[in-house]
Amino acid sequence: MSKIKAKHVFTSESVGKGHPDKLCDQISDAVLDACLQEDPASRVACETMAGYNLIVNIGEITCSGWQKIDSEAVARNVVREVGYDSADLKFWSEAFEYISRIHEQSPDISQGVSKGEGLYDEQGAGDQGMMFGYATNENEEMLPSPIACSHRLLQRLEKVRNQGDIAYLRPDAKSQVSVQYCHGRPQRIHSVVVSHQSEDVPLERIRRDLVAVIKDELAATGLLDADTEYYINPTGAFVLGGPYADAGLTGRKIIVDTYGGVGSHGGGAFSGKDPSKVDRSAAYYARYVAKNIVAAGLADKCEIQVAYAIGIAHPVSVNVDTYGSGRVSDAKLEEILVESGLFDFRPAAIIDNLGLLAPDGWSYAQTAAYGHFGRSDFPWESTDKTETLMDLAGEKRAA
């Protein structure tokens, strides 16, 4: 059991859709969406690189309808929708060079993932590795407060940019929120950092406008106070941004994508990977399990680790850590997860239970910005197992 500090400050960051790395994640996932629409059995591992006047796609894709997919058009559409839609941004949708070096998946990998005729048992994990899921009862998103607030800010700033409320804003942006905790609970927002690309307008105006948005967006958390510090474009001008100013790659924002540095991370990125890759699907499922445990009131926070061997369906291990906050023991929760059948960690079962091959009302491209967790649009955010979990744990819901 880890000792809870009386007070500490924890910081997490988020990055906007126009950040070069996030632009790459969105292109990779848009290619995945296009493949799954043509062939739900597609195997996709699509990487994207962005740089000065350049987008490159590389990776392995096996899709029966691949010849119908114009990956260049997919990439240009993502760049346009993100907001790089005019020449004055130096990088824009109609002018960059596009290169594709995509080829078919290795048959050595495919045979371990696709062999067999059964519904679940014979589909093995797409790779070895360990994945983590985390949940906390700090807020309605069931995410750590620093990353939840960081995402909220950029989503709000994207909205005011797209609506023209702050017309001088440009697509590239980063946020960072530091939260002071007292005995493990969020007490106040210590500081907020926002760096937002803009037209060449006075810095005082940018700082005034963005602080007003921040205060309005985060007021509902009850964590802002008179001593909260605000750092807006702290280096001064931020006019040149996106791939013109910095290169981008798929998978370089794995902490932004998950829990902001709270808990553990197995190291695998998500975007551009079909759900046979347990880097993605098992991380989603581990979040689903952890969130249901916390939503059931069985712990204030919970981390699930699951590990796989390539080509093998059943995980080699499942671990539960409630950081001493559990109403029942971690060993009891592990027993429930492994023996009750309530959750099935085999790859094909995860894909089937969460509907990962046929997204209903959501797309993989939507996951690629503002985090893969904490938004009710996604099936792994469901808390439909809470009642059963409580029954299995021998707990009664409070009146």
Describe the protein in words.
By secondary structure, this protein is α+β, with helices and mostly antiparallel strands. The protein has 12 helices and 11 strands. The chain has helices spanning 20-38, 71-82, 107-114, 145-162, 203-218, 242-245, 254-257, 278-295, 330-339, 347-354, 364-367, 386-393; strands spanning 7-15, 43-51, 54-62, 97-103, 129-136, 169-182, 185-198, 229-232, 248-249, 301-308, 317-321. It has a 4-stranded mixed sheet with strand order 1-6-7-8. Strand 3, helix 2 (71-82) and strand 4 (97-103) form a beta-alpha-beta unit. Helix 1 packs across helix 2 (71-82), helix 4 crosses helix 5 (203-218) and helix 8 (278-295) crosses helix 10. The model is unreliable at 116-120 (pLDDT under 50).
Q: What descriptive keywords fit this protein?
A:
single chain, 399 residues, alpha+beta, 4-stranded mixed beta sheet
Could you outline the blueprint of secondary structure elements for this entry?
Blueprint: E1 7-15, H1 20-38, E2 43-51, E3 54-62, H2 71-82, E4 97-103, H3 107-114, E5 129-136, H4 145-162, E6 169-182, E7 185-198, H5 203-218, E8 229-232, H6 242-245, E9 248-249, H7 254-257, H8 278-295, E10 301-308, E11 317-321, H9 330-339, H10 347-354, H11 364-367, H12 386-393
Parallel strand pairs: 3-4, 7-8
Antiparallel strand pairs: 1-6, 2-3, 2-9, 5-10, 6-7, 10-11
